[in-house]
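The authors assume throughout that readers already know how a fold can be written as discrete tokens. The format is easy to grasp once an entry is in front of the reader. For illustration, here is how one protein appears when written out as sequence plus structure tokens:
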Amino acid sequence: MRVLAAMSGGVDSAVAAARAAEARHDVTGIHLALSRNPQSYRTGARGCCTIEDANDARRAADVIGIPFYVWDLSDRFHEDVVEDFMDEYAAGRTPNPCLRCNEKIKFAAVLDRALALGFDAVATGHYAQLHTGADGLIELHRAADHGKDQSYVLGVLTQEQLAHSMFPLGDTTKDVVRREAAQRGLLVADKPDSHDICFVADGDNAGWLREKLGDRAPNHGGAIVDDATGEVVGSHEGTFGFTIGQRRGLRLGVPAPDGKPRYVLDIEPVTGTVTVGPREGLRVDRVTGIRPRWCGTVPTRLAGPGVTVQLRAHGREHPAAVRVEGERVEIELLEPAEGIAPGQAAVIYDGTRVVGSATISATGRA
């Protein structure tokens, strides 16, 4: 089988490419150039899109003995991921750019081009597993190493995309991957994992948004209001600097009457109002999702002991009942969750199998 191995420059994608080649597939390595100015993206342990990473990927391909190319997708990445990130924050929502990158870049732009060039599949270093179900459909499942599981950010993949995907590390732990990389002579064996958002060079999301949005933001400041009293307890320079559940960096001038911390409960970008209140105000047990993406057959209702919803990339699973009404997904959480923000993804599981995902549009209490 002809396989295109997406090589980020890290240890996971290098070992995934090596395993695909060892399985006697005809493998070609590619590195995605995603930045118009690579020096503006993170470096070292913080990056996945830098010149340094491209060089690491090239050296790994040389060791494995496979052809290697760099594909420039910087314009597509900027439009579909970076611009989307800015637009979502400006609208008071909290997006997941890694999930959007998987949806729009790695398993759309790259896979489309790979198939057009005659490749059969795209292999990545994601920790997730693929199985063929009793109905013949390809199922996406959690990785064997639940601590490294990345099925949440893959919950946007369709059946057609899954049918042309390979995740060679799904049955493996990170420690085994690093040892294997060292045994194979891959210099990235000890390279630290990338963290956070690759296109925010210093890790200061709020500062980056303030600089980039400028006059595009619907407001340039506003009031921070206490939920219980309606009292103005602070001010801010833009709603894009906040997310639901945020506790730190609020710079409130008036302490809460009970002395307890306040959290961001609501963001209204049109008026510029940020509402804060006690932690109890974050608890929700109803979630509405829109723009669903299904990994297989579209369900109408899911309920039972194995049905769960994950609401953050590194969050826990919440037992749930799910009802699907066309392009709308209604989720009842059987245990309340905290700090769930519009714009995040709700990924639905049946046991370890990923059923699909939806973008959170609203939350509430029964």
